[in-house]
User: What shape does this take?
Amino acid sequence: MKAGPDPDFPYLTEKDYFPFKGPEKWDNDIIAIGGNLSPGMLLSAYEQGIFPWYNAEDPVIWQSPDPRCVIFPDRLHVSSSMKKIFKNRLFEIKFDENFKDVMKSCAETKRPKQNGTWITNDIIEAYTELHRLGWAHSAEAWQNGELAGGCYGVLMGKAFFGESMFSRKSNASKAAFLSLALYLFEKKVAFIDCQVPTPHLLSLGGEEMSRRHFLELLKMYKIYR
Assistant: This one.
C-alpha cells in the first residue's frame, strides 16, 4: 500500500459514516489500515474509539490502544506551581486563535524515543478542515505576543479527544491544556481522552482504563454526531 491517505478511497463528508470492524474482532491496537482522512472518516473513527496514528512512510493506520488514558472532571490535577502561574498571568490563554500553527508546532516538537513525527502535512490539512467545520479545537498559551505552547483535539458531544501538545516556554503546554480542560469541564464535558498513558498525563489527573471500559464510556455518553 502507498504511504498516506488512499487517493482512490471515497471522500466522506462530516455527515457520512464509516463502520470499522467491531471490537470483538480487534486482536491488537491496530484496527484497520488504509482509507483516507476525510471528515466523515475521522469523525466515524472517533465515534468508535479509534484514531489515525502512523508514520509518514506508512499508509493510514487506525488504532485504538489498550489501555487508554482518560481524565475525568473530579480527577483533574492543577499543581500549586501551576496555580501560581495562572495567578501571575504568565501566559495569555486563547482558544482557536491559530489552530494550524498549533498543529505545525506540535509536528516540529522533538519527542523522546520518537524519530520524526506522525503529524504529517496530510494530518495537518485533515484536522484543519475539521477545525473549519467546527469539530477540532486548539488551546494556546501566548507570551509577549508569541505562541509559547498549545494543544489541540476533537470535541464530540460530551467527550474531547486530545491529540497533541507542544511547549516553547516552560509550562506553556500545561497552561494551555489545563485551561482547556477547566473550560470543557465547566461546559459539562464528561471526560478527556488522552489516548496513550504517559507519566506527564497521569500527573495531570489521567487514569488508565481498559479499552473495553473506554468503549463503554463512549456508549454511556452517546458520543456520536
In short: The chain has a mean pLDDT of 96. Helices lie at 39-47, 80-87, 99-108, 121-132, 172-186, 199-203, 211-220.
